[in-house]
Amino acid sequence: MRKSLSVLLSLFSFLSCSKDLCTFKDPGVPFEPYESLAALEKRSALTGRTFNPDLALEELSRLETEERVPFTLNYNWYGSPVVKAKGGDDGKDLFLVVDTGLSYSYIYKSGIEKVFGTEGNFFDVNGTYQWYRENHIDNKKRLKNLSRAKVIKLIRKDLKNGNINTWRDIGGIRFKYYASDEVEINGQRLDGVLGADFLMKHKNVVFDFKENYMYFDQSQIDGAVLEMKKNNCNNFYVYFSYKGKQELGIVDTGNYTFCPRNGIGDGSPEHDINDKSFGIHGKRKVKQISPAVWTFDDIEIGGIHYDNVKAQYSFTTDSGFNYGAQYHAYCLNNLGNEFFFDHIIQYDFENMKFIIK
User: Fold this and answer.
1) Residue 282, SS3?
2) What is the CB neighbour count within 10 angstroms for residue 302?
3) Which residues in the chain land under pLDDT 50?
4) 10, 170, 284, 320: which could join 195 in a potential S-S bond, CB 3.0 to 4.6 Å?
5) Ramachandran bin of 48, using left for φ above 0, alpha for ψ from -120 to 50, beta for the remaining angles
């Protein structure tokens, strides 16, 4: 990496839809319903693995170089790679999940406060406060006397609703501000997300899930080579098979488990990967179903065979996916890290290849 992270401081054939509400096609595979699970228990149930939050900081303290960065699977988003970075002049640690399923990098309120002290300071530094006052407050008689605190509250509301956006370069990476905090779990809170925009600054990125390291700009690893497709939002897809039938799925390190598409295995895997309803502010609604753990057998990715794969549909009531992400995984499979925990994978952006070893 040019600046290491330590100085750093995101149809019809298988759709059965009414006007705006899609319905579920039960695949008929065994499943185990549940009513409520804590985050750690849920991730263990959906990956068949045990996560230990007490190991996270020790794993993140391992040696980092410009080409190699340690990550942990034991921090907050259990099962997804989280890295530690230095933010601001005082060097407070930022904890960032690396999410190849997100097109851009973004930072939470906790990250903004670590770097800028307060949210208000951030809005001053990047000009958001002044711009918002001039364009949304001072030109309206009923609003122009609003206090600074109330204006900041309105800015935050518009950011959350997607009415406005604000960005900032931090440590050479352009972050979009996501005006809320990620949920704290076991005393751990994420400060932001490194998305595809950051990763694509490199020719390729390797995720070594055996040793929990990321490598940048390496030679092609020795493994099965798959063609990789990219949509307009920098999401990356590969073909795989389920019960001998071809399927298409996004490869998503931000997802710890497998989210099968609706109707998987019906012989109609294709969908427009540039569907505009997939975005983070997508409004296409999917009829939700009760929480459950599904089990899938006979899946192959690059010649590697998988049985007893635990899965969750994106449109269960507790999935945590927004509407755009729910609809994305309703239409196209989401291949999360459950498939890669015992492997090494490489995104070759230069040659549009995905390699798994």
Assistant:
1) coil
2) 18
3) 1-22
4) 10
5) left
